[in-house]
Amino acid sequence: MKKRRVISAFVAVTMVGTLLLGGCGKKADETAGSTASAKSDAKYTIGFANASVSNSWRVKMRDELMAEADKLNIKIVETDAHDDANTQNSNIESMLQQDLDAILITPCVEDAVNPGIEAAYASGIPVILFDRTATTEDYSHFVGWTDENNGAACAQMIVDALTEKNGSAKGNVIALDSIAGSGTDNGQKAGQNKVFDKYPDIKIIDRQYTDFEASKGKTSMEDFLSKYGPGEIDAVISQDGGVTLAAWDAIKEAGRDDEGIIIVNADGINGVCKLIEEGKCYGLTQFPAAASVEALHLAIDTLEGKDPEDKIVVKDPIVVTKENVGDYVVKDGDDFDWTY
Predict the structure, then answer these.
(1) 216 and 92 in one domain?
(2) Per the structure, how many domains does the chain have?
(3) Are residues 197 and 229 in the same domain?
(4) Residue 74 is part of which domain span?
(5) 273 and 201 together in one domain
(6) How far apart are CA 72 and CA 69, in angstroms?
(7) What percent of the chain has pLDDT over 70?
(8) pLDDT at residue 96 above 60?
(9) Residue 155, φ and ψ in degrees, nearest 5
(10) Do residues 119 and 93 make contact, with C-beta atoms less than 8 angstroms apart?
């Protein structure tokens, strides 16, 4: 099996109790929740102001960063804001008292972390945002993937699959959405609409918010299967891997897994990769946990004067189908593991 930048090593981090915060006399770990990879001979020392490790994607993202930093001999000084903007601002201010070469920031929210971001930028070090955006312009670069582009890529897979199935781009689609009003949902729908608006014979006949909860995904799919009979649902487009797995369970339990319902998913957990390999799901787009690795490399490039001219670096969608799923699936891995 071939894998792209899937890092299996887990790098332990140790609390740094000897780093003192300027003017307060408290240890960094007591005030800012700071930890650092212990590297006295590191090439660079880079801060990481993390929004949180509140879900499996964020845990994987952090692990990917720490493993890549270890490989490149980079010392990481990190903090965890526990999804609180005020804490994140304080964490950034505290880290700036240390001798950082650059800082990576995943903002808790789009605007309330602006003071911390702006303070980091004013200090003169490269400031790299990733995963989540901010409304301030005071940073060096943003790097990442967008929900809108991923939503468009998912919609295009639906178009391609329906064309293969029906001889033309036509069919009825069920949409399993995420959280009403969220950036994820708004972006995904904007991307879907960009594509589906070109094909009037593809119709989203029903949709339901699932709040990223598998149980809600299963209940919603059960309701749709009761509402629409055999042959009335051609495809399902989902914004969450756990929801997709639950929807597939509902399809199987209803005895309708032989109808050829096309399933497309907008993230990359291992269980959905397995469904693609088994021919039960058409494809997915990745929102990679390895975004942290991209951010680290961009920070290093910026320090070395090799960064791109563009302030915002948007990566092309990573589309996984049966042709390349072998690069991502972990056959003996947990269904809910992130594979990239």
Answers:
(1) no
(2) 2
(3) yes
(4) 14-144+289-308
(5) yes
(6) 5
(7) 88
(8) yes
(9) -60, -40
(10) yes
Q: Which residue type, as a one-letter code, is found at position 336?
A: F
Nearby residues of 274 by Cβ (< 8 Å), 6 or more positions away: 329, 331, 335
DSSP string over 28-52: HHHHT--EE---TT-SEEEEEEES-
Q: In whole angstroms, give the CA distance from residue 293 to residue 204.
A: 36
Q: Is 296 exposed, middle or buried (0-12, 13-18, 19+ CB in 10 A)?
A: buried
* Nearest to 113, CA basis, from 145, 82, 135: 135
Query: Is 7 a domain residue?
Result: no
Q: Is residue 261 one of the residues assigned to a domain?
A: yes
Is the pLDDT at 177 greater than 80? The verdict is yes
Q: Cα angle vertex 136, ends 130, 140, to 5°?
A: 50
Tokens of 205: 């006949």
* Residues constituting the chain: 340
Indicate if the pLDDT at residue 137 is higher than 80. yes
Per-residue pLDDT, averaged over 62-86, amounts to 96
* pLDDT over 50 at 247, yes or no: yes
> Quick one: average pLDDT of 197-213?
96
Which amino acid makes up residue 170?
A: K
Measured between alpha carbons, how far apart are the two ends of the chain, in Å? 14
Residues 67 and 192 in one domain: no
User: Does residue 340 have a pLDDT over 70?
Assistant: yes
The bridge status of strand 171-177 relative to strand 202-209 is: parallel
DSSP per position, 99-129: --SEEEE--SSSSTTHHHHHHHHHTTS-EEE
Q: What is the pLDDT of residue 40?
A: 66
Structure tokens at 184: 């994820």
Considering only the C-alpha atoms of the chain, give the largest distance between any 2 of them, rounded to a whole number of Å: 71
Nearest partner of 140 among 167, 121, 115, 114, judged by Cα: 121
CB neighbour list of residue 17: distance below 8 Å, 6 or more residues apart: 27, 28, 29
54 and 158 together in one domain: no
Backbone phi, psi, residue 221, to 5°: -65, -35
